Amino acid sequence: MKCIDCGKDSSKKDRAVSGGRCNSCYHAFVTDPLEDGLTDIAIKSAVDTVSSNGTLYFSKDNLRYQLQRKLNKKIKLCSIALVVLVVIFIVLLVFAFIARGAFVVLTLVSAATLLVPLVAKARFKTNISKLPALVDKWLVVNPHEKLLTAEKSQANTDGVSTANLDDISFDRVLICERDETVDFFLSNLFHFHYSCPVLGGSGYPKDIYEDMLRRLKQNPNVKVFLLHDHSPAGIAFARRIKTDPKWFGGQRYTIVDLGLNGEQKKLFKDMTFRFVDRNKKVKETAEVALFAPAALIGLCGAAINEGVPFDLVTSVAAAASGSNGYG
Ligand SMILES: [Zn+2]
Questions:
Q1: How far is the CA of 291 from the centre of ligand 1 (A)?
Q2: What is the pLDDT of residues 15-73, one digit of tens each?
Q3: Ligand 1 mean position to 47 CA, how many Å?
Q4: Residues 116, 249 share a domain
Q5: Which residues sit with Cβ closer than 5 angstroms to ligand 1, an ion?
Q6: Beta bridge partners of 230
Q7: In 283-300, which positions are buried (b, 16+ CB within 10 angstroms) versus exposed (e)?
Q8: How far, in Å, from the CA of 16 to the mean position of ligand 1?
């Protein structure tokens, strides 16, 4: 495995001898590729992606989902390999019946090889369930200045709270279900780049939300954009903002539910959680954090400019192609 610091290759034996460190620069290794399904270089590349090479703030969840995308690709490859091997097995089986001889041995060998992708697939699925612990371990050894922590979020939102509200546009607003999504957007200056204040559905940031909400509601043409998880809590959030008079209920405001909703599944397939609801039906949820930061900023910016939900955005390719989502 290659060291992320000096690029030198270390074998498993080298790593064992040097106490899990690179024997050239002593930087600590975090992963065991066989155990974790990922190398240190793969995680480093995921960090570069979610931080857009160190230009955007990201959350632990953003990194976890980026690593899940990598493991999902491996699972897909295993599935393809399995299909190919099954076809080979069936062909050999037919020949074994007709010609016998060596084909019988070959059929048995090909049956045994079916186990390889099956076992690998099961392993990668286990690796996905262990990603939260791996991400924590990674960030202890390799801290990142753009990782959003409670302290950094606080400092970044304080900057917004002390800004003069008279300088802010009240033509549109983005309201997020989760406070950490608000932190993400404010830290990455989304409100500034898209002239769009960002608020949390729980009344966040506390110091400014009431004043801001009052000013927004004074504009009858204000456009309200909602962003939430695809989950029961996300649906309840969207309903509350639309119907609660404390928010935008009871009057005719333009409210656009950006997502995530059930009909937008193409945006988040393979990245969902399954749970069993009260009626014992299996349902799926998907979190906003599954999008890589640049992609979310590009998608959100394009959706707000076009005034449509995520799945109807047409200019997103152009918006998300910018390295940090700002085009
Ligand atoms: Zn090294």
A1: 31
A2: 999 999 999 999 999 999 999 999 999 999 999 999 999 999 999 999 999 999 999 99
A3: 18
A4: no
A5: 3, 5-6, 22, 24-25, 27
A6: 286
A7: eebbbbbbbbbbbbbbbb
A8: 14
pLDDT tens track for 197-239: 999 999 999 888 898 999 999 998 999 999 999 999 999 999 9
Distance between Cα 131 and ligand 1 center (Å): 24
Ligand 1 centre from 27 Cα, in Å?
5
Closest C-alpha among 204, 201, 212, 210 to residue 169: 212
- Which residues are CB-contacts of 80 (< 8 A; sequence separation ≥ 6)? none
Q: Is residue 206 located within the same domain as residue 297?
A: yes
Residues 7 and 87 in one domain: no
- Residue 41 CA, ligand 1 centroid: distance in Å: 12
Q: How far is the CA of 222 from the centre of ligand 1 (A)?
A: 54
195 C-alpha to center of ligand 1: Å?
Answer: 44
| Model pLDDT, residue 326 | 64
Placement of tokens 């390719």 in the chain? 317
178 and 92 belong to one structural domain: no
CA 154, 160, 165, 169 dihedral sign is negative
Same domain, 190 and 266: yes
Distance (Å) from CA 26 to ligand 1 centroid: 6
Ligand 1 midpoint to CA 21 (Å): 8
Position of tokens 């610091």? 5
Tens-digit pLDDT profile for residues 275-310 = 787 788 878 899 999 999 999 999 999 999 999 999
Q: pTM of the predicted model, to two decimals?
A: 0.91
Stated as kind and residue range, the H or E segment containing 25 is: none
Range of the domain at 111: 60-141
